[in-house]
Amino acid sequence: MKTFTPIATAVLVAISGSALAGENVTYQDQYGFGNEAHAYQTGPDTWTNKIDQEQYGALNHALASQSNEAKSKIYQIQEGKLNGVYDEQHGGFDNVSRTKQIGYYNVSSTIQLYEEESHSFTNQDGEHNYSYVDQHGGESNRAYSSQYGKGNYQHTTQIYSYNSIADTDQYGYGNESNTEQYGDHLESTILQIGVMNRANVAQGGEKSMSNVTQFGFDNYAHVSQFGLYNTQTTLQIGACNTASTTQYGIGLSASKIQLGIGNNADSHQVGVLDSSMQVQGGLFNTAHVMQ
């Protein structure tokens, strides 16, 4: 009977432990000075994945990790200096993450854990912009983030969400946004143009929609939607306006338009098929609705 040496035995055990892994592909292109790229495709159930890393410039850092993941793709492109990008895909399949950063000191992080057929697209052009996307335990979600300027920040979280869409666009300086989605077929759109605008959106339930648009300086919008088929629209043009929308129920509708400076509008809806519309023009007006 043929026997194996200890070294041969160890090799066979290692091969058998990763027998289900294979057909993974990594591409790395770097042009410049002091750039670093790290790619990891590990685990017994890691197969048919792709990592593509491209860096042009100086001292950029890219890290991509795929473990126990199948048929997923990570694309990272960085142009400039001192940019950093991190992507992690674990325990899912057929996910896609695409990140492109142009400028310097931009940071992007995308984490997809136990996710299926979800996509994340991040684009940053400028300096000191920050983008974070977390997709966990869901399916067929989409997260879109675009930042142009300096010091913008956005964070998108989709947890146990299905077929949900979060779209954030920021142009200017020091804008901040946070989107959280927990449920099915949720949609959130945030557009910020200007300086130091802030928007926070939280959605739970099914088939609700939120749209926040901010033009100007230091405007603030807060949205909480929980239930079914709720809709809300917030438009702020000016400076230092504040809008707050809270919805708990079914088929609720709320709209806010603020044109001017220092206006404050809030609405609180609990029930079924209620609707409200608030319009403010001028300075330091206050409006409150409770249904």
Indicate the topology.
Blueprint: H1 6-17, E1 25-33, E2 36-42, E3 50-58, E4 61-67, E5 73-81, E6 84-90, E7 96-104, E8 107-113, E9 119-127, E10 130-136, E11 142-150, E12 153-159, E13 165-173, E14 176-184, E15 187-195, E16 198-206, E17 209-217, E18 220-228, E19 231-239, E20 242-250, E21 253-261, E22 264-272, E23 275-283, E24 286-290
Features:
twelve-stranded parallel β-sheet, mainly beta, single chain, disordered N terminus, 291 residues
Distance between the termini: 84 Å
Secondary structure tally: strands: 24
Residue runs with pLDDT of under 50 for 5 or more positions: 1-19
The averaged pLDDT comes out at: 93
The count of domains is 2
Q: What Rg do the Cα atoms give? A: 23 Å
The percentage helix is under 10%
In one word, what is the shape?
flat
Please tally the helical runs, counting DSSP H or I stretches of 4 or more residues. Answer: 1
Order of helices and strands: HEEEEEEEEEEEEEEEEEEEEEEEE
How is the main sheet built? 12 strands, parallel
Strand content: over 45%
